[in-house]
Inverse folding.
């Protein structure tokens, strides 16, 4: 047997012994599944988040609509004055209108970014609480592997701890803080 083959065989044997030793030390898997999507729609915190987001979205839309209506009126007035105003005055008013239009667009874009960040941060807060609850349940129930149902083709309903997670999340976090920082 060539030296290279002997070296390869030795490496394979050492690796297999190490794998077997690690596997022997590992506890037998006790598996549960969690329906994270359901938690993010059915829990009180998720419902509160959805309601707050809807209210803020409606507020933002109303503000943008008001500004848009004002711009439309200014544009109509400017169009009516085209034949009446001196060219330099008209150009000045058009520049002012375009600057205002850009400001409204920038404001709408900033509101959109602020909205998305607030939603992402609040969702992250909910998921952090869900993780804490799952960790607590693991200690209490002795499971060592929790898999989201979105990653499964099938799991028996007895493995699903989602109801218990929702119950504890509702007790721990019935509402979520939604922060609209315009940074």
């Amino acid at each position: 047997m060539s030296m290279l083959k002997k070296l390869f065989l030795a490496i394979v044997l050492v690796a297999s012994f190490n794998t077997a030793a690690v596997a022997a030390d590992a506890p037998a898997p006790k598996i549960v599944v969690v329906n994270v999507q359901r938690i993010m729609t059915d829990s009180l915190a998720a419902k509160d988040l959805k309601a707050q987001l809807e209210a803020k979205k409606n507020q933002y839309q109303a503000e943008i609509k008001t500004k848009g209506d004002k711009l439309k009126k200014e544009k109509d007035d400017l169009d009516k004055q085209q034949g009446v105003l001196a060219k330099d005055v008209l150009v000045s008013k058009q520049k002012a209108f375009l600057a205002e239009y850009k400001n409204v667009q920038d404001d709408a874009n900033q509101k959109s970014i602020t909205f998305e960040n607030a939603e992402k941060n609040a969702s992250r807060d909910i998921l952090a609480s869900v993780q804490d609850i799952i960790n607590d349940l693991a200690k209490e129930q002795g499971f060592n592997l929790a898999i989201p149902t979105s990653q499964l083709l099938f799991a028996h309903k007895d493995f699903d701890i989602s109801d218990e997670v929702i119950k504890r999340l509702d007790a721990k976090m019935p509402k979520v803080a939604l922060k609209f920082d315009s940074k």
About this structure: DSSP finds five helices and two strands in the chain. Residues 3-172 form one domain. Strands lie at 31-34, 145-148. The chain has one domain: 3-172.
